[in-house]
Amino acid sequence: MLLTRRLALGAAAVALASLTACGRDAGAPAPGANSDLEGEIKGAGATSQADAQDAWMNGFMDLNLAAAVDYAGGGSGAGRTKLIAGAVDFAGSDAAMEAKEAQALGGAVEVPLYISPIAVAYNVPGLGGDTHLNMTGEVIARVFAGDITTWNDPAIAALNEGVDLPELRITVVNRSDDSGTTKNFTAYLHAVAPQAWGHEGAETWPLSGGQSGDGTSGVIQTISAAKGTIGYADASKIPDSLGTVAVGSGEDFVPVSAEAAAATLDASALDEQATDSRVIYSLNHAAAGAYPIILISYLIARQRYDDPRIAEVVKAYFRYMASQEGQEAAAAEAGCAPISQALRERVLAAIDTIGS
User: Fold this and answer.
1) What's the total number of domains in the chain?
2) The domain containing residue 83 runs over which residues?
3) Given a cut of 50, is residue 63 above it in pLDDT?
4) What is the pLDDT of residue 33?
């Protein structure tokens, strides 16, 4: 299935700026609810997980009547720092922990549970909705680097035979705030087109000029406000009025979808720093039939907790997030890509190392 596009502007901006769970859903307890698991845990970190965490927390607390979970945003780096300092019990992060961070934690459990395609979206008259212009990674890099400046440039036209491309100037839109989306997008550009994009992946947009927006909603508003614009954003938030790029991957041009994003992760290799408890990846951006521009957001826990009850609740919550039920709930709420069964088995094995 293709991702459902949802334009979440003001409400989403508030949710991403300060994310908290304030209790469980109202109504009768879920069938089979468990009253034996007791305790309260707190998490913080990546705001990309905002909608998914809402779904996970509500679903988990409906099933575990004496357990409570709270998750605040604040950003990936802040979440990792708070976890190391003992201020929270788990963290969300759009970047894997560095080796020194995992060492400071005294042993980390790190698993990829939020996977979202990053769409390359554009506002070109007559090419919105379900339209997908074809672009290779090289062409995307040249567009965002400012080397390709008009929509009817021969490099774009050659990949889109029969499409009436206007003689319209391209305006690049980037994130004005530091973000994991920017880091993953620029890392993709550098990986597939290092000559055209001479910048390492970074949370801060490296070029001046063009236009920008604050957060996902700001980028989408800026793209939507002017013809000829192009930018990048979480695919689930792209409105139907904008077109999205079908990205060259292997021999194919692949439109953005949850399944195609999950296929990229399945085709990727574990990072050299991965362990039995740290399921972290080095992305394969060239897998045939897979959508190659994705955001992986990790959930991070300690391997050992001083309080056995906290360890038990953290382990149960992580298992719920990784479960088919939890992944389907997050996909319905946030438009993210559910993990595969093969990845789930590896993730659950890592989660089982949590203890006291």
Assistant:
1) 2
2) 10-116+269-282+293-351
3) yes
4) 63
Round the average pLDDT of the chain to a whole number and report it.
88
Same domain, 104 and 234: no
User: Band of the pLDDT at 178, cuts 50, 70, 90?
Assistant: confident
How far apart are alpha carbons 187 and 252 in whole angstroms? 21
**Cβ–Cβ contacts within 10 Å for residue 264, how many?**
26
Q: Look-up: residue for tokens 């993990």?
A: 339
Task: Tell me which residue of 165, 166, 120, 118 sits closest to 142, measured CA to CA.
Answer: 120
Q: Residue 1: inside a domain, yes or no?
A: no
Tens-digit pLDDT profile for residues 125-151? 989 777 799 999 999 999 999 999 999
Residue with tokens 């991403």: 16
Q: Do 258 and 128 have their domain in common? A: yes
Same domain for 142 and 84? no
Q: pTM (2 decimals)?
A: 0.76
Pairing mode of beta strands 211-213, 171-175: parallel
**Residue 166: inside a domain, yes or no?**
yes
Token pair 């909603």 is at which residue? 217
Please indicate, yes or no, whether residues 174 and 218 belong to a single structural domain of this protein.
yes
